[in-house]
Amino acid sequence: MAVRRRRRRLKKRTRRQLRGWGAVAAVAAAVWVAGHWAVVWPVLVAVLAAAVVGGAGWALLRAHRLAVGKDRAWRAQEEARARELSMAEVDALSWQEFETYVADLCRRDGYTKVVVSGGSGDLGADVVGYLADGRKLVVQCKKYAPHRSVPSEDMQKFVGTARLEHGADIALFVTTCRTFTRAALGLALRQDIVALHRDLLGSWVKGAHLETLIPLNGSGGGAGRRPSA
Fold this sequence. Notes:
By secondary structure, this protein is an alpha/beta fold. Helices cover about 60% and strands about 15% of the residues. It contains seven helices and seven strands. The protein has helices at about 1-35, 35-90, 95-110, 150-160, 180-190, 200-205, 210-215, and strands at about 110-115, 125-130, 135-140, 150, 170-175, 180, 195. Strands 1-2-3-5-7 form a five-stranded mixed sheet, with helices on both faces. Strand 2 (about 125-130) and strand 3 form a beta hairpin. The two termini are about 65 Å apart. Residues about 220-229 have low confidence and may be disordered.
């Protein structure tokens, strides 16, 4: 108990000493400033001016960032609207016409020997073509309503045939609906299947090259957060 009291007294004494030395330092600083005012006031003015300019610059930078953010959001909304407008024609196609349309998109992007092989017994290879370097592209097309999701069962069937049956170097699953289920997208990522949902298909329809969309596999919409591969 006595030790605690001594410690408290020492702390109080130390605080008093610090306050005292602080007061002495403040008085000394005030005396020095008063004696050297001709030298000090330009420095104070410069510091104040720098603070004003810095504050104005920060405000302008913040306003610029807000404006850029709003502009980006607006552009994203406009791009989404444009994709939907471009998809109106696709939505009007039958599933057979959709397969033909996807084949035409492949030809537009420079793929060769593109054929539509969809139908009963196609084993998931609705469109087949070749890249300039000789790699084989195999496409599964699913013409679903926008509100639907591609189920895991559809992806499982394509995974089982794309490479084993058709020898695909690039296996592409393209659909008109907005989402793949989480299980379907996770399976696609694990098995290196390119999952092209409605948003990415809309970009392809608008003119984006397929090879620029392949690295976006399943992102930008669809099931939202990408599952881990």
